[in-house]
């Protein structure tokens, strides 16, 4: 995760990007890229969307993650730790049903 973030930051730095990459702008960008991902599924089934252009879906998913990693960096969030903590919280909130 840290290596990926550094790679993204270097990519931006090499191009003179990132000056306006504050938390608000990055959070907006996560949402915008998620919408671009959703667009591929609009009006068609999952199967049709994947068959039509899986590569585009892959790239939009990557865009979401690229912005999320930058947001985590700006907010000093350890995403791996955050996910593990959230799963623990969710496990309490949504216990495994006993009737399964
Ligand atoms: Mg995109």
UniProtKB/TrEMBL annotation:
Q: Which Pfam families match?
A: MazG-like
What are the transmembrane regions? none
Q: Which CDD domains match?
A: NTP-PPase_RS21-C6_like
Name listed for the protein in its UniProt record: Nucleotide pyrophosphohydrolase
């Amino acid at each position: 995760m840290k290596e990926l973030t550094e790679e993204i930051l270097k990519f931006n730095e090499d191009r003179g990007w990132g000056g306006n990459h504050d938390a608000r702008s990055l959070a907006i960008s996560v949402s915008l890229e998620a919408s671009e991902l959703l667009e591929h599924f609009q009006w068609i089934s999952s199967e049709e969307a994947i068959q039509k252009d899986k590569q585009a879906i892959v790239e939009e998913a990557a865009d979401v993650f690229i912005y999320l990693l930058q947001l985590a960096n700006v907010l000093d969030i350890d995403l791996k730790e955050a996910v593990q903590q959230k799963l623990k919280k969710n496990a309490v909130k949504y216990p495994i049903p006993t009737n399964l």
